[in-house]
C-alpha cells in the first residue's frame, strides 16, 4: 500500500520540491493551495488536489475531511506554507504583521492540529515537518515579524512533539536560510541584493528548495523514526558559527 503525504503550500517553491521527491519515492499525495488553479497548473491531473486556506480552523479541517471522503488518511505532513515580511519593528504595519503571523504560525497550528486529530481518530502514528527560519534562531536586522512567528512555530513543534510522542506521532521543524523561491523573489531580484544575501552566510550562497526538500523527506521517513521535537538548521552555518574574517 502507498504511503500518503499531505503537502500544504504545494504550489510554492518548497512545496513543489517536496512533492516531486515524495512522488518519485512512490508516495500518494494530497496537495493543498488556496488557489486550485495554481495546483492544476503545477501538477495537471496528478494527485488529490484540495483548494483550502489552512490558516483557518475550517480550512485545515476541510483538508482532512476531503481526504477522508477519498478514503485517504495522510500519515505524513509537510507544511510548506509561509511568507517573509521584512521591515523594522517600528515600521511594520498591523496588517503586515498579522499576515506574517497568519501565514507562518497560525497556519502551522491549525494544520498540525487537524493532521494530528485525523491520526488519533484512526489510532495511527505519523510524522510532521513544519518550516521555521534561520531568523528565529539568531537576531537578524528587519526580521522581527518573521522571527517572532517562526519562533512560535519552533515552540509549537516542541510542545506538540511532547504531547504526541506516546501516540507514535513525530513532529520536527527545519530552519532554512534564504532560498531561491517566490517568497524570496523580491530580496533576490537585483544583482546587488542577491550578492548581499549570499555573502551573509559562512558557507556563502543562496539555498535551494531541493536541498531542504531532501531533509524534509528524510525527516518524514522511517530513517528518522527516533527523531522528534527537533529543529534542523540548513543555513550555511548562519545561526551557529561566525565566518573567519581575513
Ligand atoms: N524562501 C526563503 O528564503 C525562505 C527562508 C526561510 C523560511 N522560508 C519558509 O519556507 C516555507 C516555504 O516557502 P517558500 O519559500 O516555498 O515560498 P513560496 O513559494 O511563496 O510558498 C509559500 C506558500 O505559502 C502559501 N501562503 C502564503 N501566505 C499564506 C497565507 N496567509 N495563508 C495560507 N497560505 C499562504 C502560498 O500558497 P498559495 O498561495 O498557493 O495558497 C505559497 O505558495 C515557508 O514557511 C517560508 O516562510 C522560506
UniProtKB/TrEMBL annotation:
It comes from Candidatus Accumulibacter proximus. GO terms for molecular function: oxidoreductase activity. It comes from the Bacteria. Keywords: Oxidoreductase. InterPro entries: NAD(P)-bd_dom_sf, SDR_DHRS6-like, SDR_fam. The keyword Oxidoreductase applies. The keyword Membrane does not apply. This is SDR family oxidoreductase. Belongs to the short-chain dehydrogenases/reductases (SDR) family. Pfam families: adh_short_C2.
Amino acid at each position: 500500500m502507498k504511503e500518503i503525504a499531505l503537502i500544504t503550500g504545494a504550489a510554492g517553491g518548497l512545496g513543489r520540491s517536496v512533492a516531486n521527491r515524495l512522488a518519485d519515492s512512490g508516495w500518494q499525495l494530497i496537495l493543498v493551495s488556496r488557489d486550485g488553479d495554481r495546483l492544476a497548473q503545477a501538477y495537471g491531473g496528478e494527485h488529490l488536489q484540495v483548494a483550502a486556506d489552512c490558516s483557518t480552523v475550517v480550512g485545515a479541517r476541510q483538508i482532512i475531511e476531503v481526504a477522508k471522503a477519498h478514503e485517504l488518511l495522510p500519515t505524513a505532513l509537510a507544511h510548506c506554507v509561509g511568507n517573509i515580511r521584512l521591515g523594522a519593528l517600528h515600521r511594520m504595519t498591523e496588517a503586515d504583521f498579522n499576515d506574517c503571523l497568519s501565514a507562518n504560525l497560525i497556519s502551522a497550528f491549525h494544520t498540525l492540529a487537524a493532521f494530528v486529530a485525523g491520526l488519533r481518530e484512526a489510532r495511527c502514528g505519523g510524522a510532521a515537518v513544519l518550516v521555521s527560519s534561520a531568523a528565529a534562531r539568531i537576531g537578524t536586522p528587519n526580521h522581527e515579524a518573521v522571527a517572532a512567528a517562526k519562533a512560535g512555530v519552533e515552540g509549537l513543534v516542541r510542545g506538540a512533539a511532547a504531547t504526541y510522542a506516546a501516540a507514535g506521532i513525530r513532529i520536527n521543524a527545519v530552519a532554512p536560510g534564504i532560498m531561491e523561491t517566490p517568497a524570496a523573489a523580491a530580496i533576490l531580484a537585483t544583482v546587488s541584493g542577491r550578492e548581499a544575501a549570499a555573502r551573509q552566510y559562512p558557507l556563502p550562497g543562496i539555498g535551494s528548495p531541493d536541498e531542504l526538500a531532501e531533509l524534509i523527506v528524510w525527516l518524514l521517513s522511517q530513517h528518522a523514526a527516533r527523531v522528534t521535537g527537533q529543529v534542523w538548521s540548513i543555513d550555511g552555518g548562519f545561526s551557529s558559527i561566525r565566518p573567519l574574517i581575513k
